Amino acid sequence: MKVLLFGTCLVDTFFPEAGEATVRLLRRFGAEPVFPKGQTCCGQPAFNAGFEAQARAAAKHFLWEFDGDDPIVTPSGSCAAMVKHHYPRLFRDDPSLLAKAVRAGERIYELTQFLVHVAKAHEAGLRGKGTITYHASCHLTRSLGVREEPLTLLSSLKGAIFLPMPDAARCCGFGGTFMAKLPEISCALADEKAASIEATGADTVTGCDSGCLMNITDAMRRRGTRIRVAHIAQLLAEGL
Amino acid sequence: MSHEQTSLAFRENTVRALKDSPLRAAMRHATDTFGTKRADAFAPLADLEALRDRASAIRDDVLANLPMYVDRFVASATRAGATVHRAKDASEAREIVARVLSERGARLVVKGKSMVSEEVDLNSHLEAAGMEVVETDLGEYIIQMEGESPSHIIVPAIHKNRRQVGRLFADRLGVPYTDDPQALTKIARKALREKFLSADAGVSGANFAVADTGSLVLVTNEGNGRMVTTVPKLHVAILSVEKMLPSLADLPAFLRLLPRSATGQTMTSYVSVITGPRKAGDATGAKELHIVLLDNGRTEILSGESRDILKCIRCGACMNVCPVYRAVGGHPYGWTYPGPMGIVLTTLLTGMRKSHPLVDASTLCGACVEVCPVRVPLADLILGLRRRKVREGFSDPRERRGMEAFGKAAAKPALFSLGQRLAGAFWPLVRALGGKDVAGRMPVPAKTPLRRRLP
Amino acid sequence: MSEAERERLFLENAATTSAGTRSVSGTEALLSALGEIVAMDSPVYCPGVTELEKAAAPLFPVRVDDYAAAAVTVEEVFGGIAETGTLVCSSEGGRAVQAGLLPAHHVAIVRRGRIFDTLDDFFAALSGAPPTNLTLVTGPSRTADIELTLAIGVHGPERLDIILF
Lengths: 240, 455, 165
Ligand code: SF4
Known about the structure:
heterotrimer, C: 4 helices, 24% helix, binds iron/sulfur cluster
């Protein structure tokens, strides 16, 4: 099955390893990922900051790059939620783009959704190691409604122990441009998240959104905590 | 005491709050407790989602027909013997209340908790007119004594710990120091009982106004709301126009949702349904009841894209789950209403010019949307206000230039790639040039981005 | 809901709000329950208007006409709501609803036939103009304004006793 891979601007620019891991996972489960070369960003930074025209420009480009009927897979809950829930608003006055936007929303999968519901990766006996805890990112959980899939995958890892995190779905303080506009609160929230992670005693923390993981990594660095932060794609791909 | 709006200094306010460790401990404790209590209270309730839908639909209907419901309320309340006043803004509301009270020679006024009275800054106005105004809700009593404003719409002194309250009471009331909440409560009971019995008038808010019957509904726990509305001979209620419910039959849905959302109770101790003043043959009720219906910009909100905020029933659940509110408390928001609903209301009621930093005071994490009992789409409303902020030119010029560049690059892959490479090359420089708040917290861009690693 | 079920639910829910609850049958049992509950609380305000109040009043040697000066109010109330263990107090018939508010102890007698299943049933049964004051009472007066720690008896009663008759 051909799937279009949306890497997301953050993974593309800062965390290409998570993108490569996504490709390995998709291939292992029989999908043929294609990376549309012209892809850029879903437009969320502009959309969330209130710059609708710029968000629309990005979204329009996305719809053009990802046109067609193939499923779209992305290693980000936040970007998937942007396409699914906010694109229709951006094109509410443009019937042809609106139809495309709605269709894209139906075609897009956050990675763990695809791995569980389409690829059944949790039944493949992937290996893991050490102790793992999981941060449930905001848009993944509350906007996309993806709560169980990452847990299903992580608890299926043979040889790894999953340790639940208290208040796993509380915001880490990233919030896109929020981290730049109100850095003090952003750091305070990331600190609290880091403390919850430390309290689990896990040696690795994972999640489905690299923005959050980046913010958490920074808090870990400030606190001098030596807990590994890895995107869920990387953890899963290591067990192939 | 009068409080200047400080929303423009939101960031500075939060920096101060973040350094206040008793405040942060109090906020963590309070929001954690609220979270558990709320979850426990809703757990046994079958079909919560259907109940939320029903309450939301009732509020939608009220907003869709607000002028009709307000007229109906005015007619029924008048028929029941109340005098209804319409106030178009804060100053009119203050004038009306002050006039009603002073014409009847009121000197001592006991007050129940009312966020609308905070919104119009009623107390300072009445005090300036020579009246003694005593807040009687325990939390309001504490902050009035301290000269503060509420930091939460349900629990106004949520930012204070028991030791701070103990010291305050010892200092101001001359009682021996104690930090036992039960003992502190007793002290307040005694001090306030005298005030209730000698007050010339009671001023209250209302949670709901019932259009069909002209009734005011007060949902309370302490009993001060009952005192204020039944003990003095004059009762003045001040509430905003959107508090309407069509009929008493609509009330149960809200009585099931409001206490559970607000304090995690199945039911509050008291729900008072007050219909007009004391009538012939009655032994309960104020002899005279005046109802002040405040508009203060709500009619305008009603016709705009943020109208759903008027569905709000002031339960406070959205602030209890808000990570930003949890970290800094209510005071940094700088006006009457804090938290997610406060961001929206403050911006709409006081204007973008006085409050625009607030619209950025959200990570858009959606926790508020998940708990709001009447489905106010808070995240969407905040997004709408951010668009308005941009439209009205209140955004930072650097952000604007950055976003304009982003918009161009996002639509042109070559430009986007170039930007990526430039960012990689200049990252150390950006960090060095004081970009530590942002660039310093992000990793250095990868040497080879994903797009150049894949076939 | 059967009558027995309704009564059980009413008492059970009332008990979770820290109200004292009893269920008695017959005037004698009522009077002896009142005697135990009121015990040393004095003076007593008892309106002596309903039949039950008339029967109860002689039980209390020190009575006052001013509820603000009473230590306890003993009265029959309008009804109850099973869903929440709530008492309904009404100003109908010239009753002083605040008599159940000012004294530190409130003893409310509710007749079995006056219990409604749910809040909806109660409000649906209200026809015409409501009385000047309708107060739903669920447990004693309380606050959590200091550190969200529950404290009982702020401005209203710190003790609420319900007798189902
Ligand atoms: S917006 Fe919703 S959650 Fe927030 S106070 Fe209003 S009703 Fe409660």
